[in-house]
Amino acid sequence: MTRFHELPDGARLAYDDSGKGRPVVLIHGVCMSRRFFERNTPALAERFRVVNVDLRGHGESPACEGGHTVAQYAQDVKHLLDTLELEGAVLVGWSMGTFVTWDLLRQFGSDGIAGHVNVSQGPTDLAKEGWELASFSLEALFEALAAIQDDFQGFAGELIPLMFMHEPTAEEHALLLSEILRVGANAGTCILLDQTLQDYRELVTSYALPTLLTWGADEKFVAAANGPWLEAAQSDAELVVFEQSGHCPMWEEPERFNQVVGDWIAAL
């Protein structure tokens, strides 16, 4: 059953809360929703307390006029953690969900956080001098923003197959497209721009927190070499590659993902 959490500015977050034990918070990617974790929540909830949240304006969270920045999303998640008293939580950030996790650590530190599962996200998405593992050049970013404003449904429809190693079925494509479109073109444009400008390369080397890095072998968005880079840069990181997945290993290989992630969390 969907629950709603009210934030200090009146925005509301939709979330599910199931299971018992160590808190595990699932944080989805840019313009996506908590439904991208629907193949993981039941299995993980057999072992842990799982909170699966829609970021503001995404999924079932009501549309809101402002606040569509990674920094604000991190503050929203922190407010949710504190209100639900999720002490010792493991944050599972898929794609931009890991940016939200990193920004939470930047703003508030790691007290009360037991670990981080990074699903398919490097420390920065924008190409810059000395960084060859980027997802976007500045020109490509501007093209993507214009495409969202021009035809968000068409943009999202073409994006979905690129997220997977194996072509989604028509039913899966329709479901995922409907979830992406919930955010709307304007909020989607704002948060894609903001998240792409973030750079956490310095931050990720500055703290010690158990980290599981999960990557699909057929990654088309975030260069697979980001995984080894992070494993070397972070003081307590372990990399696991999912051979039959693209950007969404939690969707394409859910049984293995649930086992690997669940066992890693249980061992903390």
Order of helices and strands: EEEHEHEHEHHHEHEHH
Residue share in β-strands: 15-25%
Please count the beta strands (DSSP E, at least 2 residues each). Answer: 8
Structural class estimated from helices and strands:
alpha/beta
Q: Treating each run of at least 4 consecutive H or I residues as one helix, how many helices?
A: 9
How are the strands ordered across the major sheet?
1-2-4-3-5-6-7-8
Helix content: 25-40%
- Sequence stretches where pLDDT stays below 50 over 5 or more residues: none
Task: State the separation between the terminal residues, measured CA to CA.
Answer: 29 Å
Mean pLDDT metric: 97
Shape: globular
Biggest sheet character:
8 strands, mixed
Radius of gyration (Å): 17 Å
